[in-house]
Amino acid sequence: MRKETRYGMPAADQILFNRYYITGYSYYFRQPKWVLEIVNPPTIDGDKEGVKRSDNFRPDYRIPQLFRADLVDFAGSGYDRGHMVPSANQRGLEVQNSETFLLSNMSPQSGDLNRFAWRHLEKEIRVLNSKEDVLETYVITGPIFNFQEPIETIGSRDKNQVTIPVPHRYFKSILTEDKNGTLKMWSFILPNSKVTDSLSNYMVATTKVEQYAGIELWSLLTGIEMKKEKLIVRPYWS
User: Fold this and answer.
1) Out of 67, 93, 149, 156, which could bridge 161 as a Cys pair, Cβ 3.0 to 4.6 Å?
2) DSSP-assigned beta bridge partners for residue 25
3) The CATH number of the domain where 99 resides is what?
4) Per residue in 24-64, pLDDT tens?
């Protein structure tokens, strides 16, 4: 069993076991349904230490051609190739950072979200992970679609080719284990657009993420529903 799956792993069309994180890939959406990682930056601020950001975006050829995304799908789309596992979380080794640039780790994300509030949330998780009493930090991240709203797509304009739908929202569920074995959990849902208010306004019950994303999180925790609700606390970040 992989260490990342200690508290459970959701289902997906294809499970991709990377060296330093796990992807649950969706054939229908041609992007990750979820990614599961243990946060592992060399420092709080990955820009100061650790290997350089590789920026070698590339298709993931483990996925059948019919279902995988390609670089051309994002080109000129107006959306960023949004990392689900952040590059800055995996900067200990070149191969570690490089595998975060597989397109199986990317989702069409608004630049207004990706470069600001989403980036800030990612950094605050690294700060949380760096706290002296935190032993490990597990994170599940993924897209959310609302089928009652119009769904924009990117990719080929050829009607015979499948396009990539743009998510309406994204989630992160963070589970920390301290050196005494105590677990704490925070879950967030952010819109795929500009966020100008406090991130604490986007903290939600983990069961809400499960309902909206259609996956079960941390399924190996005992006392499942009641335990999850009790674990959710207000985050210290703004």
Assistant:
1) 156
2) 14, 32
3) 3.40.570.10
4) 999 999 999 999 999 976 544 444 568 889 999 999 999 99
Domain range for 68 is 3-231
Mean predicted lDDT score pLDDT of the chain? 89
Copy the structure tokens of residue 76: 């000129």
Q: Are 113 and 192 in contact (CB under 8 A)?
A: yes
Contact 40, 25 (CB under 8 A): no
Quick check: 120 pLDDT over 60? yes
Cα–Cα dist 52/87, whole Å: 10
